[in-house]
């Protein structure tokens, strides 16, 4: 029997690779397959980076007849035939999984290709496990703010329940899994409150955060350039934040960096997001008075953090990774009203309340840069622990054992 890992872009490949590499010895003889559904992403396409064990299979939208008419999943599914397209998707997913699948492990379970994979797995008698990829996961989504998203929210029940022309989209983690592996006790409680049976949800941690357990900050000479890492987020390109607001935040950041660089040397690196498909930092670069280095994100963040003195971001989960590696972090918030969904704005609001410096304009940004140094004593590690769980270098082993328990239980 085979163990299937299903990735969908972002950091899911790293999370699943860590769990796959840590599978216990009694599963070592079973085939492992990684199925990449990222090519179905209507906004960015691309593939998921995965360096774990086993065979890699890339899903191909053309192979099941899915054409890209629009970047909206629901609209695109309707234009491709709705439920008829979904049935073809399930049949295609069955081939990707293979008839010998015993369990399918995924970090995501909401878009149609993901739920099609889960349906196919269950039809073939396989179990399904959701492994929480990282922090800032929305269990139940807040009210949409943009007109387009409000219209979609109103149309969804009509399309899925009344007309039944589309399959439903479940809330995160609520797709009927045999096991949900939460990052922390806080997330476990949230899933149980949302309706999952307590015995279904267990706590494992975040496998991709294991390397952070060994990183510690090192003192820097006062005369050295301040090494600043800016974490880019493609939230404007992906429709999560109003474009004008996103550009205004980058211009303010550039103005603050320029002012600070006039007083002390700054070595700035601009790091791309895993889901960036274009130049998401063009406005910042165009407004800088000095050259910045480029980091396309080929190496994991923990490989870059030892050479960083200050991390600046908006609401990236990478900011939490930096804190866990004992690197000072500053938040440059986008106005809450600029977010298309309240749940996205809530992530940023949360970050502004954990005790890190928050800079809303060029003057405040310049002040943070001028004072950058040791970790602030105000950081609320308890609240951070609610998002990331225990970071001790053993999350991958814990999650792998929890996956193995599902396989063993079904084999009895």
Structure explained in plain terms:
- A 7-stranded parallel beta sheet has the order 3-2-1-4-5-6-7, with helices on both faces. The chain has a 5-stranded parallel beta sheet with strand order 10-9-8-11-12, sandwiched between helices.
- With 412 residues, the protein is α/β, with parallel strands linked by helices.
- α1 crosses α14, α3 (83-97) packs across α4 and α7 (243-261) packs across α12.
- The model has no long low-confidence stretch (mean pLDDT 90).
- 37% of the residues lie in helices and 13% in strands.
Question: What is the secondary structure topology, with strand pairs?
Answer:
Elements lengths: L1 E6 L4 H10 L10 E5 L18 E4 L14 H7 L3 H15 L3 E6 L5 H12 L3 E5 L15 H16 L16 E4 L2 H10 L6 E3 L22 E6 L11 H19 L4 E6 L10 H6 L5 E3 L5 H4 L5 E4 L4 H7 L4 E3 L10 H10 L10 H10 L9 H8 L6 H17 L1
Parallel strand pairs: 1-2, 1-4, 2-3, 4-5, 5-6, 6-7, 8-9, 8-11, 9-10, 11-12
Question: What can be said about this structure in brief?
Answer:
By secondary structure, the protein is α/β, with parallel strands linked by helices. The chain has 14 helices and twelve strands.
